[in-house]
Amino acid sequence: MSATGSSARLTIQDIGKLYADGQRIPMLTAYDYPTARILDEAGVPMLLVGDSVAEVMLGYESTLRVSMEEMLHHTKAVVRGSERALVVADLPFLSYETPDQARENAGRFLREGGAQAVKAEGGVRSARNMEAIIRAGIPVMGHIGWTPQAKLGMGGKVRVQGKTREAAQRLLSDALAVQEAGAFAIVLELVPAPLAAAITERLRIPTIGIGAGAGCSGQVQVVTDLLGLGSFVPRHARPYAHLRETILEAARAYSADVVAGTFPGPAESSTMDPAVLDEALGRGELDRAPAAPFGIPLDRDL
User: Fold this and answer.
1) Which residues have a catalytic role annotated?
2) Per residue in 29-76, pLDDT tens?
3) Burial class (CB in 10 A: 0-12, 13-18, 19+), 265
4) pLDDT tens digit sequence for 150-179
5) Per the domain annotation, does 221 fall within a domain?
6) Helix (H, G, I), strand (E, B), or coil: what is residue 102?
7) 118 with 140: CB under 8 angstroms?
């Protein structure tokens, strides 16, 4: 039986078995209960409660704005909505700057949020803090390449990382540092496909790519990109649905039906015995008034 064949919630050991068996690993972000239920039912083995929630769900201009409390709120919803997927929660900006702080906040995601693992950005610079989390028995997924929490220090503009010899060597060093810290997997974001494939070949843990080509051990996408909910599609994303247009059309059709008085109709309404209504209103046959617009009885004395 494959690691995804059980109804029990998956563990990092199950993810490791998928990797060892050579099976590519799908991962999607999730931020709420109903979406988590659907993705879990679809058999997606890992759900990431990404700090991308800041931009795609909360309307912030940057992932830097989301707080621990907000991340915990969304993590709890995703955990409640899933039964089988391994839930990974993103440690938000400035929540893992020291080993003690990293350990405490990572622990909150497991103790309060119900997650099974956390994700932390950074390679060499974050390895010591990742190791502190892992020593506490908390699984960690690393994240290198384009790291949105450090975007201001990286020039502010989203761009592919590792295109020069020195930058490529730094990314390989980052990947090895994350692995040696004890991470069970590592996200490679916006890394040239040949470099991502070379890093993948040199590691003993799975790589999860986003904008890093097909040579990674698995892939992760932001669920709103997958579903076509936004007006902008990143180059690395592929919409598998176009729900923005579907929702827009549905909302317009609903509004038009309400204005026209065609919703709700008989199918969406319930009725009752007229005699029971008359008794409840304390009226007899002669007291029945003709119905006015919107179902409000006319005052017969007017």
Assistant:
1) 189
2) 999 999 999 999 999 999 999 999 999 999 999 999 999 999 999 999
3) exposed
4) 989 888 889 999 999 999 999 999 999 999
5) yes
6) helix
7) yes
Q: HSE of 208 in the Cβ direction (CA atoms, 13 Å)?
A: 26
Tokens 């179902």, residue located:
295
Any residues with CB less than 8 A from the CB of 126 and at least 6 apart, and which? Answer: 96, 120, 142, 178
Residue 297 within a domain: no
Q: Which domain holds residue 153?
A: 12-239
201 is a domain residue: yes
Quick check: is 270 in a domain?
A: no
Reduced to 3 states (helix: H, G, I; strand: E, B; else coil), residue 271 is coil
3-class secondary structure, 88? strand
Centre a 10 Å sphere on the Cβ of residue 254 and count the other Cβ atoms it contains.
Answer: 11
As for how many domains the chain has, the answer is 1
* pLDDT, mean of residues 199-211: 98
- For 217, the token pair is 């051990």
Nearest to residue 187, comparing CAs of 63, 90, 109? 90
Comparing 113 with 295, the larger pLDDT belongs to 113
What is the longest distance spanned by two Cα atoms in the chain? Answer: 93
Q: Is the pLDDT of residue 277 over 90?
A: yes
- Strand locations in 91-195 (E): 117-121, 140-145, 185-189
Stated length of the chain: 302
CA-wise closest residue to 218 among 66, 3, 58:
3
- Report the CATH number at residue 64: 3.20.20.60
DSSP E strand boundaries for the chain: 25-29, 46-49, 86-90, 117-121, 140-145, 185-189, 207-210, 218-221
With beta carbons less than 8 A apart as the criterion, state whether 235 and 146 touch: no
CA–CA distance, 192 with 182 (Å, rounded to integer): 25
Q: Measuring CA to CA, which residue among 57, 59, 55 is closest to residue 73?
A: 57
Task: Write the DSSP symbol of residue 30.
Answer: -
